[in-house]
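User: quick one
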Amino acid sequence: MNNLDLSFDPSDVLARVEGDRDLLAELVDIFRAEYPRLLANLRKEVEKGDARGVEEAAHAIKGAVGNFGAPVVSAAALALEVMGRVGALMGANAGMARLEEEVERLQRNLARMGGGTPA
Amino acid sequence: MKILIADDDRILTRLVAAGLKSRGWEVEIAHDAMQALMFAMKAPHPDVIALDIGMPGGTGFQVLEKLQRSSRTSHIPVVVVTGTITEGDEARVVEMGAVAFLRKPADAQALHETLARVTAQGA
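Assistant: Done. Structure below.
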């Protein structure tokens, strides 16, 4: 199976790096190195129930994934950012699970494009 | 021309730096507020600064205020580039001395055009 996620647009990703696949590989490597820490930070804030912390940590993830387009992942991060902003964290655990799933999906899509150093 | 990009998003800074370098800019990157101030104060100073608002170690507002207060950096035009700013914040950064404002996601071409415009105005 080679079905790319419809929410992910490889041509948009390539346009963002102005066609430079080496740069894309470098960005994906940075993303791979960064996202476990960003997700762990957000998870910690969700567990603490710190609304401001959730907002800030989710915002950082939204920015990172937004560099690759990825509207579905960005939306999942935005949902948590908004929960934090309005101080309503009832759905934060479910939102966190969805975000983690979408980040993994983004990783797989980027890997399919040939982005990043093979693990 | 030399630009200092102050933003904690390492993917964005690498992406924008590549695009600006290919357009002839010399690029320096700071990933937190303290680093941004250090790089701005150090000679040779950047010709322009692209400043994010939400950074570790201090907000972009605080960085902007310190840049404007220092005789070493008050002449450097600052372009605020951020994804979280409200209309009130936008008015505040302009009042504080920022010369332009860009909303994320800001690509290299948009940033290049804005930087070229503000540095030409200051020349």
